[in-house]
Amino acid sequence: MKNRLFLPITIKGKNIRNRAVMPPMVFFERAGDDGFVTDEHVEHYRARAKGGTGLIIVEATCIEKNGRLSDCQLGIWSDEHISGLSRIVQACHEYGSVVMLQLHHSGLRTPSSVTEIPVGPSKNNQKPSRALTIDEIEAIKEDFTKAALRAQEAGFDGIELHGAHGQLLNQFVSPVTNQRTDEYGGDLKGRMKLSLDIIYNIKKELEGKRFIIGYRMGGNEPTLKDGIKIAKLLEEAEVDLLHVSGGISSPDIALPQPPQTFPFHWIVYCGTEIKKNVSIPVIVVEGIRTAKQASLIMDNRLADFVSVGRGHLVDPFWTKKAMNQLEAIPCLECKPDCHWFENGDLCPQQRVKNSQ
Ligand SMILES: Cc1cc2nc3c(=O)[nH]c(=O)nc-3n(C[C@H](O)[C@H](O)[C@H](O)COP(=O)(O)O)c2cc1C
Asked: Of 65, 109, 151, 182, which sits 20 to 30 A from 120 (CA to CA)?
């Protein structure tokens, strides 16, 4: 029987050659303050496409200059960004990967090097910040929609809205960070209104186009039960692809606990439980390093795709090696943090890769 990891799948008319996903990962220290794509970005993604990856989701790309997660993040807040981004698309398509772009705004997590007063659903009492006005929320919706149209113009096969990891859309969805009493707060539907409106607007603009709308969500918001409800609302909104990662945890609520026999991270567990509750394709992620682990998830039908993040950073040929039963260069699990959060050149495995 063929390993399900290598079975193709079609979403929105896009034929994805296998189920290995490179999840969005900012390639730090490459973009400048203008957010333009550099040659290094193009070669970074070309290498992973050449390495056989089925679906590449290009790193968090900011829809608004004042919402960047760092001053070296890619941008899509102006038409001028389109041509650089299209170079990434061409490089990925040349080697057969389907390629999506992650659209992002940091909200309350925007650092002081980017903006003095970060904005979000509500003020964060721990630091200078303020709640967005209704007019500003409308402007953010428009920025996301325009960014999606630019991504489509650049040739991307789809976009992924960044609704996980405590970023702006996640801040709205989570009751931990959203204390609004207007239509953008309150119950889950209210807290999801911003995300759902953006999805609706993008779909309306791109009606009839073969373009994948993905959403990266937190599986714990703050419980897995909430994560399942969120996934169902996204399915109702006709999202094409769900990517389940971590959300905003609450100091008062324990993290979801997989059964002792479950051999993966709790975030993977959230993804596999969400998969049982929706019929749209689900990507799982977190700590999946080897082809054996990825195949175990796929062959047991626990998910439709497997994201391999750091595995792809240390070894662009992760997928081809998996297909040929060769060992990929291992991630060394650097502590306290992966060096790629600072600069990939510092990754101890770059020496190995460059010598191959
Ligand atoms: C250097 C680096 C940058 C990242 N940037 C993003 C990002 O832009 N958007 C996002 O949603 N997640 C980002 N992540 C999280 C990854 O997509 C992924 O969820 C995480 O690395 C866990 O998967 P892994 O264990 O396979 O690496 C980043 C992770 C790393 C290591």
From this structure: 151
